[in-house]
TrEMBL record:
NCBIfam families: small_GTP (TIGR00231). This is GTPase Era, mitochondrial. GO terms for molecular function: GTP binding; ribosomal small subunit binding; rRNA binding. It comes from the Eukaryota. Residues 36-158 form the G domain. GO terms for cellular component: mitochondrial matrix. Belongs to the TRAFAC class TrmE-Era-EngA-EngB-Septin-like GTPase superfamily. Era GTPase family. GO terms for biological process: ribosomal small subunit assembly. InterPro entries: GTP-bd (IPR006073), GTPase_Era-like (IPR005662), P-loop_NTPase (IPR027417), Small_GTP-bd (IPR005225).
Amino acid sequence: MFKTACSQHLTCFIGFSSIFKNTLNKYSTECQRTIKVGFIGRPNAGKSSLINSCIGRHFLPVSNIPHTSQQLLTCVKTFTDTQVIFQDTPGLINPAIRKKRFRIDEKLDIVRDCLSQSDLIAVVVDSHISITYPYISPEIQMILREYENLPSVLLLNKVDTIQRKKIKCLAKSLTRPPLDVPMHLCKTPIDTGGWDRSKAKECEGILKFIYYVCSISKYNPWPYEPETAITFGLDVLTTELTKEALLHVTRNEIPFVVTPETTITFQDATMIFRILIRCPSERYIRILKIEEGRLRDHIDKHFRNELKSIKYSIEIMYAS
């Protein structure tokens, strides 16, 4: 069990990457180690924030609105001789909830696709919510049962929101066999046989989680170059940042009914990001035009940190 402070509480961990100085010389393939970690959990548990903190950069969209992550996104960090591949998945909710915008079945398929190629399952739990509901949710138990051959580790997230003396009690409640499934939340009880406590390491902080992940990695050639940070393109990154900006500056259903797309072109040594936001009606376009300045500022803030020596411009367009 790893205790971490995350989401808006993770600033104290952002600088940890300086401790792990990546050696630029390439290790021989015989000495290279690799591990893939699949992060699963309920919506807004802090999966994306944890991964951003682990790699020391802000590449995955985060907000305090559930269902920020809608697809499988992969980040990479090379720690000396070990390359860790972090896979972020959409939040899991009860399959009985059939709301169209949540696309439950599609998200379950994404999680299964992620775990089918993972070496370790990291189950992220929001400690603040789990104090009130101290059990692993049925949908996560279902996934753990399907992939019981994979080792799993429990990440108690946002522990700075609860009293320290409650952390061990919470960990015990979440890992005692058999895992509790309240009957009113699950029509068919899931008999998982419990979650092996030996898979939960009791230590604190993201650094120790990284040490643990590296310690169980296996000798395999690195699938990516040591400088690689993300496996998706800059256009996808810009689209995800736009979704994050929409969640931060707009309200209600707007972020879930509009669809941003990004194309990147070059003109006179300037990188131009053209963001097209498709809206279901003119009403949404009028609302977004009012908030366009804040949207642009949110995206630009990220690019200023990542594209320090590159000239760029951001263009936002709309279509219905």
